[in-house]
Specification:
Radius of gyration: 13 Å
Number of strands: 5
Helix content: 25-40%
Shape: globular
Structural class: alpha+beta
Largest sheet: 3 strands, antiparallel
Strand order of the largest sheet: 4-3-5
Length: about 90
């Protein structure tokens, strides 16, 4: 029996994908924002420039997480795009 993929929706393009293909942004229960690990309210975004820019421009992450998102979080996501190789596009 093969395991069924866990599907999540990108907040920007609204595409339904396996969660391993998306980057996770978390509003931590104790306060603050984290990437990829932690417990709390989560939002997912595709690892491409178009979705990250659209999420920033239209404040999609703020709406999904119901809190303010610092520009440094979006900058970190954009930096991941430039530093990751195409084979590393999947989130951990």
């Amino acid at each position: 029996m093969s395991a069924r993929p866990v599907l999540r929706r990108c907040v920007s393009c609204r595409q339904l994908l396996d969660r391993r293909q998306l980057w996770r942004v978390i509003r931590l229960a104790e306060g603050g924002i984290a990437l990829d690990a932690g417990m709390g309210r989560s939002a997912y975004v595709c690892p491409n420039h178009t979705c990250i820019e659209e999420a920033r421009r239209r404040r999609k992450l703020q709406k999904a997480l119901r809190c303010q998102i610092a520009d440094s979080i979006v900058a970190t996501l954009e930096q991941r795009l430039t530093t990751s190789r195409p084979a590393d596009a999947e989130a951990r």
